[in-house]
Amino acid sequence: MRMNSLQMQAFGPFPGAQAVDFDELGADGLFLISGPTGAGKTTILDALAFGLYGTVPGARSDAEDYRSHYADPDTPTYVEVEFTAQARRWRVRRNPRYMRPKKRGTGMTEAKATAELSVFNPESGHWDGIGRTVSEVQEEINRVLGLNAAQFMQIVLLPQGEFARFLRADPIEREPILRRLFNTEHFTDLESILEARARQARAALDAVSQERQTLMRQAQGSCGEDLPIPTAAHPSVADVDAVLGAAVSVVRERIDVFTEVLQSARTRSADAEAAADAAAARQADREKLTQLRSRQEAYATSADERARLAQLQRQAIKAESVAPYGREADRAVREQEAAEKHHTAALTAFSTELSALPRQPETTSAEHIVQAAGDGQRAAASIATHLTRVADLTRERTDLQQKQTAAAGRVAELEEKAAAQDAALDELNARLETRSDVQREYDRLLRALEAAAIRQQRGDEITAAEQQRDKQQEALKDRQAEESAAKDTYARIRSTRLAGIAAELAAELTSGHACSVCGATEHPAPAKPTDDTVTKSDEDAALNAWTQAQNATNTARSTLAESRARITALTRSLDELAGEDAAVSVAELTQARDIAAQTLRELDQARRERDELRQKRVALEQQQASAREDAQTSATQLSAVGGQLKQLDDVVSGDQAAALHPFGFETPDTSAAAEECAAQLQRLRNAGETLIQAQTKREDTAAESAERRDAFETALTEAGFTDRNDYQEARQIDKAGVDSALRAAADEAARIAELTSQDWYSPACADTASDEELTDSVAVTAEQRTTAASDAEHLGQLLAVHRHDAADLVQLRERFLHTAAEVEAEVAQRRGDVALDGIVRATSADNLHRLPLSSYALLSLFVEVAHNASERLQTMSGGRFTLIHDLSLHRREKRAGLGLQVLDTFTDEPRDPRSLSGGETFMASLALALGLADTVAAAAGGIRLDSLFIDEGFGSLDPDALAQVMEVLDELRAGGRCVGVISHVQSMLQSIPQQLRIERSPTGSTITHRSSPDS
Questions:
Q1: Is residue 16 part of a domain?
Q2: What does pTM read for this prediction?
């Protein structure tokens, strides 16, 4: 991983765009970043960190105020970093969250934080976008670099004082830093996983033990005996099998005993069952014999009744043969009576219709009257149709005349309305012609108001800046007075010291040593100090006070110059804003703008009214066309109706009037009269036709009735009936009842014969025991049977229970033994999980060092860090110092392993890093940083770190130590790294050709690249 370039704008103390070409700077492998304190040297490292990770090292990340305070409000803030990683060139661009002016209107708005990442495509020569969201960009950068933000800021950017604090820190304070750098979370995750597995394993072991305890208790309950159950918390397979086997043996012995007892009980029950069945059978045969004899007596006494029923059955059969003739004769009589009634009603209705006529017809024949009524009805209907059509056309002509008049009025009304709308449209168009001029004036007033607001803001800023400048001028006068006083004090003290220099030199004289002035070794009369003697320390203090006063004066002068420059810039900006409306007040411009805005609103309303009126005008034209069309249609229809009425003016024909005269009707003059005449004649015709049909029906039914009556009389004679009364009596017989009674008698005779032929009949007749004796025998044998059966059933239930218990116990034992091997294998695995968790998390005595896995891994990495750092420190210190990994247990520590000591070869004694001097501390810290960088890079997958930045600390080294440190940096450079150092040391300014110089000014800092000619 190598940094190629950096571009930034409005970031930190840099108000404008700045660019750093690390490829050019690092051509020699080593370059220097220099500049005054606070100029922004460290900001370059902050920009690299921000560009890659969106944050900066140390406490500065808490501020989150990355935007330059010197930048113009419209200048955007961004950082762009190009770097090489995984043999590809990458470019990331970020901007932080900051406030910027609104694009529309006045005031400020927040610019959101953004990030863009792209990779250079050598085939196309373009940059291909990878991610555009902050999270996407960060995820890809972490993957490409193989380092997170904390690792990058510790091993690529070596920040001010960070590693000195790390060097001097207690071991307990180093652990969280190392965990963050080495990403040992996977070890702690593994510890958590193993802890969870151990927790599950313990639960599983407890469950197995509980299940085995339950099995043994269940076996004891099934056999009903006290069995020897093991008391161990985790019983073995053998323990459980021994208890189950003992329970099975107990139950099987009990089954054998109950089987023998049950067999004897079942034999006794069978004997009692046979005796009870025999007694019950004798009693049942006696009851059947008694019932049979009663049935035989009843059958013998019913002989006369059976003969009577046979005679009734014969009479009913003859009546059934004659019944169809009787039914046909009755039906014919009923139809004849109905025809007579229908004829009488039809004759009455026909007479009623005839009497309602104006005049009776001359003929009395119903057929002739029906024919004449049909002719008259058709003639009257034709006359009604003719008169109805004339009336309809007359009404239609009246309606059309009214419509024609209304349509003409509508046409005239719409023409007047169209003329009014045209006039209104002309007026609105004339008003709207001025809108473009009003809009231009309104836009000009808006721009003038915006410029006036900016001028007012600039004026306020100038006033504030002038007030600040006046205060700074007064402060400068005070600092100049203080500087003058300090200068006079220093001159007075120095003059006094020079005057008493003899006493100061005399104080340094020693007997036997030469005087530095005269060279004599004897000093008989050395000068004595007076009360106002001034020492060199007094002079140095006065000089220091004068120097501080000078610095304060220079600072005040610089501050005043910055204020004056700001006033000049603001004044120039205000002059640039002057325009044609500069003399007009904001209130006047606002009033003019409001008037123009109101005018625009009124014109917009007029435009909407015009558009609406145009739509109404189009609709009105459609209405006019429709009204004209309606008027034309009404005229055409009126002409057609008039022609039809002329055609219908002919009188009714003479044949139609003649058809009505036989019935006394005059020719109708209205459609209603014609329709009433047609209806009356239709009713007469219908009544006549009904009468003709009734006469025919009456004659037909009379003939059929006589024929059916003769056939019935013949059937009665042939069947042997004397008359109809004799037949009716036979019809009243319940033949179904007679048949049923005769069948029942035959069935009873057959049943009696069947019973007397059965096997029980003869023994029952021969049994001489009384009924009481049979009853007593049944009761005694039934009781004996019940008792014996109950005893056998109870014993059988007990045996079934014992057999079920035995089967359950056998199945329980087989199931247990079937799964025992698998369960034991799982138990062994679970015990292994518990043991492994104890070792990994250091809760087991088997972990001799009492170190969890994550701490052990961290300790191993820290040993590597100490080894790598020691090699660097030996080179820097000329072989004097070596870093030693300290395994002793320190204060507040539960575990040892993260201690550091420095072995001093001058004394061969280990030293606490806190006892080192400033220069020694810097060398040890730098060595530790480089060693940590090497170890982290290796732990991150062997990534190559080709860029390294070291911030400050070189000023604490003496020339020899500085030379040795530079040798280490040369080694890094020789190894292919590009090393950038930040320092004020003069010798480094002279020895490092490639330099990045940060210049500070009242308006912000700038960056320049310098290189010596030798480079």
A1: yes
A2: 0.41
882 within a domain of the structure (yes/no)? yes
Note whether 92 and 115 are within 8 A (CB): yes
Confidence of residue 10 (pLDDT cuts 50, 70, 90): very high
Contact 400, 392 (CB under 8 A): no
Q: What is the DSSP string of 700-719?
A: HHHHHHHHHHHHHHHHHHHH
How does residue 413 score in pLDDT terms, banded at 50, 70 and 90? confident
CA distance 390 to 647: 10
> 98: closest CA among 110, 108, 82?
110
Phi, psi of 20 (to 5 degrees): -130, 125
Tokens of 509: 């004289």
Instruction: Please say if the pLDDT value at position 532 is more than 70.
Output: no
The burial class, CB within 10 Å (0-12 / 13-18 / 19+), for 865 is buried
Look at residue 674 and tell me if it is in a domain.
no
pLDDT in tens, 227-273: 777 777 777 777 777 777 877 777 787 778 878 887 887 888 888 88
Q: Kindly report the CATH number assigned to the domain that includes residue 31.
A: 3.40.50.300
Residue 291 falls inside a structural domain? no
Q: Distance between CA 812 and CA 523 in Å, rounded?
A: 120
The number of distinct structural domains making up the chain is 1
N residues, the chain: 1015
Domain span holding position 86: 2-170+852-1010
Q: Which two tokens stand for residue 820?
A: 């025992």
Complete DSSP assignment for 638-678: HHHHHHHHHHTTSPPPHHHHHTTGGGTPPPPSSHHHHHHHH
Q: What angle do CA 11, 14, 18 make, to 5 degrees?
A: 90
Provide the 8-state DSSP code for 692: H
Beta bridge partners of 99: 110
Strand-strand pairing, 30-34 and 88-95: unpaired
Tokens of residue 396, six digits = 């239609």
Cβ-based neighbours of 827, under 8 Å, separated by 6 or more: 204, 205, 208
Task: Provide the percentage of residues in the chain whose pLDDT is more than 70.
Answer: 89
Could you tell me how many helices (H) and strands (E) the chain has, helices first? 25, 17
Closest listed residue to residue 240, CA positions, set 820, 806, 803: 820
Decide which of 1009 and 162 is more confident: 1009
One-letter amino acid at 554 equals N
Burial per residue of 305-319, b for 16 or more beta-carbon CB atoms within 10 angstroms, e otherwise: eeeebeebeebbeeb
Q: What span, in angstroms and rounded, lies between the C-alpha atoms of 272 and 330?
A: 77
Compute the CA torsion angle 158, 163, 165, 169 (nearest 10 deg): 150
Residue labelled with tokens 């059947």? 288
Burial of 922-948, coded b for 16+ CB within 10 Å and e otherwise, reads bbbbbbbbbbbbbbbbebbeebebbbb
Residue whose pair of structure tokens reads 């100061």 in the numeric block = 504
Q: How far apart are CA 677 and CA 661, in angstroms?
A: 11
Q: Please name the amino acid found at residue 442.
A: Y
Among 398, 389, 396, 371, residue whose Cα is nearest residue 652? 389
